[in-house]
Amino acid sequence: MELLLLWETIVRWKKVFLSVFLGFFLFVVITTLLMQSVYKAKAVLIINDSNPTSALFSTLQIRSEVRRSAMEDPFGADLAMITAQPILDSVIHDYELKSFFGSALEYDDFTEKKILRMLLPQPYVEAELADDTDQLVNVVALAPDPQLAAEIANNVANAAIIFRNNLMRREFAKIRESLSSRINDVGDTYYKALIASRDFHMKEGAESVEISEQSKSLINKIRNIESEIISNENSAADMEAQNNASEALLKEISEFRQASMDYRPSEERTSYESILAEKLVSIIGQSAELTKAHPAMQALEKQIAEIKRQLKNQPQTSIYTIRKSIDPVYDSLKDRIQQNTVEIQGNKGKQKVLISQLNEAKLQLLRLPQLTVSDDRLTTEISAARDLYQTLRQYLMKVTLAESVAVSELQIVETATVPTSRDFPSKKINFSLGLIVAFFLALMSVLLLEYIARAKTAREREAS
After folding, report:
1. Exposed, middle or buried: residue 445 (CB in 10 Å: 0-12, 13-18, 19+)?
2. Which residue of 155, 200, 281, 456 is 20 to 30 Å from 250, comparing CA positions?
3. CA 10 to CA 18: how far, in whole Å?
4. Contact status, residue 333 vs residue 246, Cβ threshold 8 Å
């Protein structure tokens, strides 16, 4: 019933319906036909995950090959590089691209896609990953001229490859220049070491000097002792720092510690504990110089055993005292300070022994023939300079080879062809949407007129 009423309304206002429908549809048709066409061209690049050049670099040990699949955003940098400003600026300059209003095209306008670009067409380019694979990149170009669109897409693709090649060669050139400078410095050092060795042998009147095995052994011993001294000093410094921090914390909680002590500990047990601590410090200090079989060490161990036995028989508190602690951290910190103090004293005793051993080894080394030590030093300098020079020369050769054969990971797999049909505006889409919109506009116009007419009729009836 409602459809019938709607049909009767359309028939009653058929002239208005047809006028609005045909008018809007003709407007869409004329606008579509007169609107400037925009053509779309596409060039396809492939990003090689592992190409022969990367394999060659890995073989030459120039760089380790990292597969893109292990990266978080494997192809984001390549997409950004394809539409980088240096590349697109060169394309704009080569083709003298203009905006819709005739002014020189800017980089931002060349890469920003807006609806207004379709109504006011001007050249545009973008790079996007293909849907079927992450390694294919579509370089899409839009332009009012189909030939220009194809040339822009191909030119951007080629410029991206050239830019990538030049970037790689510049990196290798910097490495080569740095290596060349380093080689010159090492060469000078090597030459000076050879001259010094020649002068030394001429002065001493010997063609060669036997390198003393004893000197080598002493040098290694000195290095080991020095390393052990440094390690011992660092250990003592760490324990002193721990003691300082613990004492600062003890000071902060001392009043809480005093509040938690209701009674005084046994004085006799405290005396035994102090004596035991002193004996432990003594035995650790002498352990760096004396063995366990030494009579003094055995006497100390017997005294410590006796004190421990006496402590075991002593009660924790006197008969009228009971010790209560409300802060176990205080006792733990106090024990840590005591342990660190004992170890620090042991380190000091050990440090004295090590310094004595170091001085003795140095004196032994100085007593060796000075001729052997000098020859050893010169031979070592010559050997080190020669090895470094040869290694740098090998790396320079590899870098030079890599620079000459550097090939970009980007390759063109499909060049852009001149499009035969325009991408925008589309006649099928515009005409289809035009018919639908025209029908609804005409229908709304008829319904509005019908509503106005019925309202007018109702008012006339009420007036009469």
Report:
1. middle
2. 281
3. 9
4. yes
Say which residues have a Cβ less than 8 Å from residue 234's Cβ, sequence separation at least 6. Answer: none
Q: Give pLDDT, residue 135.
A: 77
Strand, coil or helix: 253: coil
**Whole-number Å distance between alpha carbons of 304 and 292:** 14
Query: Which residue type occupies 267?
Result: E
Compute the Cα dihedral for 444, 446, 448, 454 and give only its sign.
Answer: negative
Residues 6 or more apart whose Cβ sits within 8 Å of residue 119: 35
**Is residue 15 within 8 Å of 449, Cβ to Cβ?**
no
Residue recorded with tokens 């003691």? 243
The size of the chain, in residues, is: 464
What is the rounded CA–CA span in Å between residue 411 and residue 407?
9
Burial 421-430 (b: 16+ CB within 10 A, else e): ebbbbeeeeb
Residue-by-residue pLDDT tens, the chain, 464 positions? 577 878 888 888 888 889 999 999 898 888 877 777 788 899 988 887 655 455 445 544 555 444 444 444 556 677 778 888 888 888 888 888 888 777 888 888 787 776 666 667 788 888 888 766 667 888 888 888 899 889 999 999 998 888 888 888 888 888 888 888 888 888 888 888 888 877 876 775 544 444 456 667 777 888 888 888 888 888 877 777 777 766 766 666 565 545 555 444 556 666 766 776 677 667 666 665 666 677 777 787 787 777 777 777 766 544 434 344 444 656 676 777 778 787 888 878 888 888 888 888 777 666 556 666 677 777 888 888 888 888 888 888 887 877 776 666 788 888 989 998 887 777 788 888 889 999 999 999 998 988 888 888 888 888 76
Strand-strand pairing, 124-129 and 136-143: antiparallel
Contacts of 282 (CB under 8 A, 6+ apart): 300
Max CA separation in the chain (angstroms): 145
**DSSP 8-state secondary structure symbol assigned to residue 265:** B
Residue 124: is it exposed, middle or buried by C-beta count within 10 angstroms (0-12/13-18/19+)? buried
Q: Are 346 and 285 in contact (CB under 8 A)?
A: yes
Nearest to 408 by CA among 81, 132, 130: 81
Beta-ladder partners of 143: 39
In 3D space, the residue among 71, 88, 83, 78 whose CA is nearest the CA of residue 47 turns out to be: 78
Bridge partners (DSSP) of residue 129 are 137
- Are residues 98 and 104 in contact, defined by beta-carbon separation less than 8 angstroms? yes
Query: What integer pLDDT is reported at residue 58 of this predicted model?
Result: 55
